[in-house]
TrEMBL record:
GO terms for biological process: monocarboxylic acid metabolic process. The gene is fabG5. It catalyses: a (3R)-hydroxyacyl-[ACP] + NADP(+) = a 3-oxoacyl-[ACP] + NADPH + H(+). It comes from Corynebacterium glyciniphilum AJ 3170. Belongs to the short-chain dehydrogenases/reductases (SDR) family. SUPFAM superfamilies: NAD(P)-binding Rossmann-fold domains (SSF51735). It is found in: Secreted, Cell wall. The keyword Oxidoreductase applies. Pfam families: adh_short_C2 (PF13561). The keyword NADP applies. This is 3-oxoacyl-[acyl-carrier-protein] reductase MabA. Gene3D superfamilies: NAD(P)-binding Rossmann-like Domain (3.40.50.720). Its main location: secreted. One of its GO terms (molecular function) is 3-oxoacyl-[acyl-carrier-protein] reductase (NADPH) activity.
Length: 250
């Protein structure tokens, strides 16, 4: 994979940071993309300290012009981006009757519009190369989750997007798959614990009791699944949704 370039969105921290580091370990040059370019620097340093190649790229995935410029910059500095991980995400949880239109729009913009814009920009390079991998972050919330009417709709949407990308891009050697995590300990889930008034340790302990493997997930669990979908050997796996949730009940 040493000649390949990946873009990981939302990679300044959490799952995205771990995915970026894992793909770099796999031999890819990695664009660490997030809203704040400076915030990506620590991940770039982690990768380069381990002997990998990475650059920090600041862009809002929901901004069409910024996405186009970011993808062109990656192509110029690292080579044609043929692996794309649509990981950037936000939550704006509330019960339906309290959810604002802004909360709905913000979540749709980052997850769905963001994944659409990034995929459309990157496919130009993938189809030209005749090889590509798109990996989208869905969630167990796609199956429904109280207080997340916006997020669950977006994460279910990511699954439809994935399957259609797989159908349209397959003939160009491009696969598209989704990873749907259960509970993963990151700043996102830490914020949820804070919102419901529970300490993060108690929150994780409560999750562990419900999960068959008896622990909360960690970003490396997701990075491992992404690494598989990004690999050369996974070329006959496309349009799939892999739940990574410590058990069969998503
Ligand atoms: P996180 O710690 O909150 O990290 C998300 C990253 O995305 C942040 O660095 C954030 O930047 C960035 N981001 C937000 N909006 C963006 C935008 N418009 N453009 C570019 N970057 C943007 O979240 P995480 O827990 O690692 O989650 C990563 C992905 O996995 C998300 O898609 C999430 O929905 C999904 N997921 C997570 C879990 C879980 O349990 N953690 C479970 C299922 C699915 P800022 O810091 O600047 O906001």
């Amino acid at each position: 994979m040493s000649h390949r370039t990946a873009i990981v969105t939302g990679a300044a921290r959490g799952i995205g940071a771990e995915v970026a580091a894992r793909l770099a370990d796999d031999g890819l040059a990695v664009a660490v993309l997030d809203l704040d370019e400076g915030a990506c620097q620590a991940v770039v340093e982690r990768i380069t300290a381990a002997g990998g190649k990475a650059i920090a790229v600041g862009a809002d995935v929901a901004d069409e012009a910024a996405v186009q410029a970011a993808v062109e910059r990656v192509a110029a500095e690292l080579g044609a981006p043929t692996v794309l991980v649509n990981n950037a995400g936000i939550i704006r949880d509330n019960l339906l009757f309290k959810m604002t239109t802004d909360d709905w729009d913000a979540v749709m913009d980052v997850h769905l519009r963001g994944a659409f814009l990034m995929s459309r920009a990157v496919q130009a390079y993938q189809t030209k190369e005749g090889w590509g991998r798109i990996i989208n972050l869905s969630s167990t919330s796609a199956l429904g989750n109280r207080g997340q009417v916006n997020y669950s709709a977006a994460k279910a949407g990511m699954q439809g997007l994935t399957k259609t990308l797989a159908i349209e891009l397959g003939k160009f050697g491009v696969t598209a798959n989704a990873v749907a995590p259960g509970f993963i300990a990151t700043e996102m889930t830490e914020a949820t614990a804070e919102r419901v008034g529970v300490s993060f340790d108690d929150f994780k302990a409560a999750v562990a009791k419900e999960v068959p493997v008896q622990r909360a997930g960690v970003p490396a669990d997701i990075a491992h699944a992404v690494s598989f979908f990004a690999s050369d050997g996974a070329g006959y796996v496309s349009g799939q949704v892999l739940y990574v949730a410590g058990g069969p009940k998503a």
